């Protein structure tokens, strides 16, 4: 069993797309935390935000992250805000290697669909401000940073899947040595 590959970054940066590529190339299962929450709750993310609020959604993210951290051999595409919660991202980091897809936020906003993304509805400048606020948080949690990532992330994902140094980062987790049974006479 190998360490999980955990993808973080701003909404729309390509985590799900890169995750699909890596899953296919590495023969692993992709789990998108937002899609998992939608399936479990029977509501879309915008519906959850509207009916239950952001706090409720964030609590669901923590639960999903903690559950996924107990598994191995996954590609995990995290919602953009998941790393803002230490209890969520720290659980995933324990069982995985965290890759930050650092794509230019202006490029994301200008070229990716923003409907269906509740926290992207306040306009371009608000989106750029949110990205700037999250930058250091993403950097703090990342084991690998893909600086300057653009819409060529397809090429990047294929390169990651073939890079021996990167693959060493997601190598099998060390097994705990079993302590011998102690017998007291």
Written description of the protein model:
- The protein has 185 residues and is of the alpha/beta class.
- It has 9 helices and 5 strands; from the N terminus they run βαβαααβαβααβαα.
- Strands 2-3-1-4-5 form a 5-stranded parallel β-sheet, sandwiched between helices.
- The relative contact order is 0.21.
Please render the helix and strand layout as text.
Blueprint: E1 4-8, H1 15-26, E2 29-32, H2 33-41, H3 45-52, H4 54-68, E3 74-77, H5 86-95, E4 96-100, H6 105-111, H7 124-141, E5 144-145, H8 153-162, H9 164-169
Parallel strand pairs: 1-3, 1-4, 2-3, 4-5
Helix pairs in contact: 1-8, 2-4, 3-4, 4-5, 6-7
Jot down its keywords:
185 residues; five-stranded parallel beta sheet; 9 helices
Strand element count: 5
Taking all Cα atoms into account, the compactness measure Rg is 18 Å
Residue stretches low in confidence (pLDDT < 50, at least 5 long) are 173-185
What is the arithmetic mean of pLDDT?
Answer: 82
Shape: globular
Largest sheet: 5 strands, parallel
Strand order of the largest sheet: 2-3-1-4-5
**Structural class by helix and strand composition:** alpha/beta
Order of helices and strands: EHEHHHEHEHHEHH
- Gap between N and C termini, in Å? 39 Å
**Number of helical elements:** 9
Estimate the helix proportion, in percent. 40-55%
Percent range for β-strand residues: 5-15%
